[in-house]
Amino acid sequence: MTLDPKILIIDDDPIVLEAVVDVLETVGYAVASTNDGPAGVETLKENTASIVMAIVDHNMAGWNGIETIAHLRGISPNIYCILATGALLPADEYQSETRPDAVLPKPFDFDTLVNAVEKGLERTK
To answer: What is residue 10's three-state secondary structure?
Structure first.
């Protein structure tokens, strides 16, 4: 049995979270979503076999995006992680295990989002 790859969206802004989920589902992707890092980690633990990508907001209460990526990679080292951020982050903020595979600058439009996902999914094959 082949599972469709699933994308995990983690963002504490409910409007952004809903918009990203709606766009990705509309173009045909399977999506799981949570509003913070710890919930995202639990979702990944429950769906490790099917989740191949995470789009993680950087500026969240509690764990920020970099911390969340570190925890996600502790469970699934090969998960493709896109960091969504409106901030310019210094290169030294990233360690090898927390470095996102791609950065999605905020604000982004729907085409930019879909293109980032398509590029990421190509790399997970």
So the answer is: strand
H-run or E-run covering 57: strand 51-57
The enclosing domain of 98 has a CATH number of 3.40.50.2300
What residues make up the domain containing 90? 6-124
- Spatial CA neighbour of 73 closest among 100, 103, 91, 93: 100
Q: What is the pTM of this model?
A: 0.91
Q: Answer yes or no: is 64 within a domain.
A: yes
Nearest to 31 by CA among 1, 52, 57, 13: 52
Let me know if residue 1 belongs to a domain. Answer: no
Q: For residue 6, give both structure tokens.
A: 């699933």
pLDDT tens figures, 7-64: 999 999 999 999 999 999 999 999 999 999 999 999 999 999 999 999 999 999 899 9
- Counting runs of H as helices and runs of E as strands, what totals does the chain give? 4, 5
* Structural domains in the chain (count): 1
Is the pLDDT score of 1 beyond 60? no
What kind and span of H or E run contains 85?
Answer: strand 80-85
